[in-house]
Write a structure and sequence with these properties.
The protein is of the alpha/beta class and 292 residues long. The chain contains 10 helices and 9 strands. The strands form 2 sheets. The protein has a 5-stranded mixed sheet with strand order 3-2-1-8-9, with helices on both faces. Strands 4-5-6-7 form a 4-stranded mixed sheet. Helix 4 (105-117) links the parallel strand 2 and strand 3. Helix 1 (12-33) packs antiparallel against helix 2. It starts with 11 loop residues before the first helix and ends in an 11-residue tail after the last strand.
Amino acid sequence: MINRYLPEVSKKHFFRWRKCFLIYKLCIDQHRKAPRTSVFMEDLRVKVKQEQYQVTLKTLMARYATTDLHGCLRTFRHAVENKLRLGPTDELYVLGDYVNKGPDSRGVLDYLMQLQAAGFQVYCLRGNHDQELLDAAHGRNSITWASADDRALTLQSFGVTEAAHIPTHYLRWLNALPYQLDIPGFTLVHAGFDFHLPPQQMRQDWNTMLNIKQFVFDASRLQGRRLLYGHVPTPTAEVQRRVEARQGVIGLDTGCVYRHNPELSHLAVLNLDTFQLQLIPNQEEPYPIAHR
């Protein structure tokens, strides 16, 4: 069961390292025909180190971010395995909302946990729908948990009729998810921050991080890092525009789960170093969901 979820490691790494080796061999052959000078050896070392550095940066590590999977396992797997061809040195950041609305909430959690267990560098944040599922499972019934149709679809994926019966290892995994993350160049959060609050309070306002829909961005609060978030479904054209402009704050939720909305219905995946944006169409079998 585990193996069917895991992507194959791309063979491109082998061929890039082979290229590096051939450059080294060519330099050695040239060296045999040339005077043994320290200048030549220094050139050789520089050429090899430069190629190794480029190979390491361009092919052995990439950083990606995506968000709001909402039970769309087929689409997410297609992104990871066929579009990104995620390797063990790559980093993938997922900004929350793994469950509800879509057809396979349990499958999404299984896949994420199995990627992590296999050594892939997949880092997951908490979203409001993940918190709502936790609240429902722990009997906090005063808190609204999705619509009746959403609840039925989610519980069906887990093979239970009540949230309290969801297997505990899923709840433990969800409960351990952080609300935010700072990485080089970026701050990651599910929904955003209330930038009117004092700095320390802003970074501890968990409810806002999960639920805010509008905020005024203050770049000075993040020490030069860009802000990436999800939560609010945004037309693909608008997300493309913001990425192309390399704005300081970018929402990546393109409403993958809303399969009836042509302006949405894609999973957005952003390369954090090249700013290449991939928009992957919803790949799921038909499932009930309203037009947004």
